[in-house]
Amino acid sequence: MLELDDVTVRFGATVAVDSVSLSVAEGSVLAVLGPSGCGKSTLLRSIAGLEHLDGGRVCWDGRDLAGVPTHERGFALMFQDGQLFAHASVAENIAYPLKLRRVGRGERARRVAELLELVGLPGYGDRRPTTLSGGEQQRVALARSLAAEPALLLLDEPLSALDRSLRDRLAGDLREILVSTGTTALMVTHDHDEAFTVADRMAVMLDGRIAQEGETVDVWRAPVSRQVAEFIGYETFVEGEAAARLVRGADGVGFDGAAGGVLALRRSALRVDEDGSLSGVVRRAVSVSDAVHLEVEVDGVGEVAALAEDPVHHPGDAVTLRLDPRGASRLNDARRL
Ligand SMILES: Nc1ncnc2c1ncn2[C@@H]1O[C@H](COP(=O)(O)OP(=O)(O)OP(=O)(O)O)[C@@H](O)[C@H]1O
Asked: Looking at the Swiss-Prot or TrEMBL record, what is one Pfam family this protein matches (predicted)?
């Protein structure tokens, strides 16, 4: 089990990691999710032993790792660009950590075949990394990271260099591979969908601090602050009477406008529906791959982000919306960190 206790890392006047405490249980996957510059890579590097800690402790199974060099921690690292050795074959790349551990030739070949199978690239052993697609290269990098059966796998934006559709597919595969191998992992990413797909738990990091940590579904459903909500994809924020009006008649939200607080809504929470109880006027309509993104001025509420299935709505059109409570969350100010 990995435990971080008040970890702090400074670069001059910049506090890149500010008193971070987190744990990752054996066999589970934690995603540290945050915007560019929030300190997530520095946090990962400090776990790997690549940064000097200005405060706090990094412990593995109860043992403080201060003074334990990177190569003796038993952790593996995987980066955005897999950093494969271009001059070596795929099989040699994957076998590299095994060679370092003096695993014999026959056993190495057996493990390489097994790992290529695991990452969906059987028969690719003799290829050079430069002849592979970006997604295939990341699969090879993952196989190499898993070769030595690391106690902890540290993943730094492992899918960021890939295009969207490939990233979605590989995120699902990554999840399956980590679960099937029982790997304990910590992944840093700025992509909330990726965090949701790959991890069991999610820690949202803002300005060097952990703003919220919990099971991915819980963080997804109940962000503790507007900043966290915005970062995980909530787009509309309303309060007071406007919020009460929005949820009136929608079961399951239970928002009392008079009690204060903010109602956060994902775009998917407001859908065009001819039986919907909210009426408004379309201000903007943008078609995306499988839906239409609308901005709708709702009477007595203001402009909200909504979703339509067909591209039949134009600015100025009157529409009615239905609220789906699964995409709505009441931000609880009391729990704000
Ligand atoms: N070696 C360094 N020297 C000085 N400042 C640094 C150093 N490394 C990181 N920083 C600063 O620390 C802060 C956190 O950087 P870090 O790379 O950890 O963020 P990040 O969340 O991983 O961002 P990104 O997603 O853009 O990589 C930033 O303000 C950055 O400029």
From this structure: TOBE_2
